[in-house]
Known about the structure:
The chain is α+β, with helices and mostly antiparallel strands and 377 residues long. The chain has helices at 2-21, 39-44, 84-94, 130-143, 212-216, 303-308, 311-314, 316-319, 347-356, and strands at residues 49-51, 54-56, 65-71, 74-79, 99-100, 102-104, 111-113, 120-124, 153-158, 164-167, 180-187, 193-194, 197-198, 228-229, 236-240, 254-256, 259-261, 264-272. Residues 192, 261 line the site of 2-acetamido-2-deoxy-beta-D-glucopyranose (NAG).
Amino acid sequence: MGLRRGMVLGALLAALAGIGLSGARDEFLIGWQGETYRPADVWRGEQAKTLGGRQIEQAPASEPWIETLSWRPRAFLYHSFMTDEECEHFIQLGAPQMKRSLVVSSSGDNGEVSDYRSSYGTFLNRMQDPILTRVERRLSEWTHLPMINQEDVQILRYGHGQNYKPHMDVLVVDDDDGRRQATVLVYLSDVEAGGETAFPNTRRHHWVDPGNVERMGKVSDCAAGHVAAKPKKGDALLFYSLKPNGAEDFMSEHTGCPVENGTKWTATIWIHETAFRADAFYPPPPDWAPQDPGACVDFDERCPALKDEGLCEADAINLKGDLVGDGALGVCRKTCGVCKDCAPDDRECYLKNRADSGYLNLDLQYLWPRPGSNRKA
Ligand SMILES: *[C@@H]1O[C@H](CO)[C@@H](O)[C@H](O)[C@H]1NC(C)=O
């Protein structure tokens, strides 16, 4: 009886819904007419912004469109996901903070330097500024996954010969924030040769459109014969590490092919199954700026006393800084003698401070004049 009544009620609701579906309300039903997401629509609400003296355009240079590359793994290419100005802005934010990239060790401990991954990298804070925020929001609209599930944006730089060998993005030891379910990799630069993102477990028949093999033109040996994406400034590759049923998809193993000519800059955003560090999901205060590794400062007034207690050596990681890792700058770099107090116009001194704290000094156009003021302790 109860079951029967439920069925009748269900049919009635379906009929009512059918009435509601017709006419003016169609636009609320994405997918009703076969479409799921129209990239051009997303740009409509975007406003041109000026940030740090730079104009950030509101529209991409070419019409954005989304291409399904493969279902095994689930991989999609969003052409013109970011504007050239947005790409340049991400690089400008990331370049002064670049350090040698680490891999998460098998024990799940802190990162370690490894030849497995020879790029340089850094993280930008979620919602660090309005441009980051609008890209993160655009990404959540595309993926239909909440912004709070996104990790901080990782910026990577690969020079000649640098690569990232085949790996999965689902970590062996994942934390309370759920596993990484999807990865979005935005190419922030064009690359003259090499640097493709390839899925080495795939073969030609995994392409949804095998015509892509010809369309891509020449690719490096590392990418040949596999589903792959060629770096193109502004394009975003989205792939899922988890299948719809939650199991790991080993077809999503991927590699950053060696850069054969040029420099490859990327922004990576991992999207978790659940909220990522929900307690830190807010923008930094308006006066926030990243620490400047070229500036020689202490962040704690107790530094002279700590030095007298021998802590510069005993607690070097915290006081001098994590010189090889991607940890924070030392709290007492000045007092512990890791850096020199440079004259404001002394570029060599400034760059030496950066290098002595493990930071990368390539791409000088982003480092000098000094990019920003130092955050107060
Ligand atoms: C690298 O690319 C640049 C620009 O396309 C080109 O001029 C140069 O010859 C290339 N170098 C090599 C080694 O292929």
